[in-house]
Amino acid sequence: MGGFLSALGQKLAERWLTLLVLPGALFLATATVAATLGQAHALDPHRLTDRLTRWAQTPAATTVGGQVVLLGAVLAAAAAAGLVAQGLGVLVQRGTLAPDWETWPVPLRQWARARVAGRRARWHAAAHRYRQQRDADARALARDGLRADRAPRRAALEALRRLAAEEPARPTWSGDRIHAVSVRLERDHHLDLAVLWPHLWLVLPDTTRAEITAAEQALTRAVTLAGWSVPYAALTVWWWPAAPLAAALALTARYRIHAAVDTYAQLLEAAVRLHLGELAAQLGVDHPGPAAPALGDALMQQLRPRTPPEGHGG
């Protein structure tokens, strides 16, 4: 038991250091540079060197007690900055996936509704172009007996998928990518993913759960990186070179969020399609095959909470 607790403490300390302290310390260093140089001397290394030298010669920095207090203060401030960035990352994730955008405050809800309408119109236009190209290729094959060049059809399909995998219902690509999994499972298998997933998770193999957990953690790291871009952007009030740093963090976070969301959505859909039969076996539900819509109907009938009869309310 002691060995387990020791290993657990070491792991927690490593995560605390990696996720909070180190990024927080880097931000504190940048903030110190911003406060020291300001806008007028933004790229003056001599001014920075002189100021740091004077700080290093102060009594608080030359005594052991002062160094301990200074180190503790830096660690605490770095951890606090890391917690703030994680909190901002949670907000970024809520805004990026937008599962509840219809309940947002009125100005944000109006913006989201306009975004959904615009994305939906562009998606339908792209879908129309793809269908036209597909039908033209089919007519050419029927008329000449030769397959047309697949490049235009693939380009039209890729343009459609860049907008959304299914008809847009969220204001962002990432939100629609997750939502598309629910749409496909409902359409193809008559499954309600929100009801199904907690039950399916318990029967998934450890390797599958590990892959999905890793994708979730990658998404968490990506949105936290986006959260860091906010305090770096705030530093531009005092030091303009913080602006390209904030922009680089935001762009990198955007790319990582897209990649993590796409990976997570693929794993989510694959896990349902591959292991649905195992859940049915655990529940004793007979089925002709894991892809049959009848299986989805039977599972949903068993998994959905039933409405309590009248007179039994609390």
Automatic annotation (TrEMBL):
Which chain regions cross the lipid bilayer?
64-85
Q: Does the keyword Membrane apply?
A: yes
Q: Does the keyword Transmembrane helix apply?
A: yes
Q: Which UniProt keywords apply?
A: Membrane, Transmembrane, Transmembrane helix
- State what protein this is by name: Vegetative cell wall protein gp1
